[in-house]
Amino acid sequence: MNPARLFFPMVILACGCHSGLEDPQPLPSLDDAYFRCRVQPVLAKNCAAFACHGDAKRYFRIFARNRLRAAGSEAERNALFRESERSFNFDAARAFVDPDAPEESLLLAKPLDQAIGGYYHGGATLYGKGDVFTSKEDPDYQTLLSWVQGAKEDPACIEPGSDL
User: Fold this and answer.
1) Cβ atoms 67, 85 nearer than 8 A
2) Global confidence as pTM
3) Would you write out the chain's pLDDT as a tens digit for each of its 164 residues?
4) CA distance 102 to 163
5) What's the number of CA atoms in the CB half-sphere (13 Å) around residue 50?
6) Dihedral over Cα of 152, 36, 95, 103: its sign
7) Spatial separation of the C-alpha atoms in residues 73 and 112, rounded to whole Å
8) Helices and strands, number each (H, E), in the chain
9) C-alpha span between 30 and 34 (Å, rounded)
């Protein structure tokens, strides 16, 4: 084996060099039960369509019954929701929450109409769906807002439509 092949990686490790990117921040500590019983249904209804975030190619993607699934055949698409999928959705949603300014989180701003402070949302123009939330008073928007602000749910709650 060529000793030079071992030398270069050891030099990089020894000098503590890195790509210059910041270390990833931990995900915000938000209530899993509130997500499971209130937020997950909102995301499944409003975001998980195949043309939207129910597409494996999207940076922010959502698994849902009868939509995008983590694994399995087409025949299993409507199978019981797997804990691994729910956990993936929980982490994906938390990654779009700013713990220092929860009300300004992308999870809230991206689907919100620009006229009332939201950001550009591709689905609004690409698919003719319009912005998901045209008002901050929308009950689904309020559900997401409550969660990013730290709302809690009874841990024994049962997710709607979960067949539990």
Assistant:
1) no
2) 0.75
3) 444 443 333 333 334 444 445 667 788 899 999 999 999 998 888 776 766 665 667 777 787 877 777 777 777 777 777 888 889 889 999 998 999 999 999 989 888 888 888 887 766 566 555 667 788 999 999 999 999 999 999 888 887 766 54
4) 32
5) 4
6) negative
7) 34
8) 7, 0
9) 8
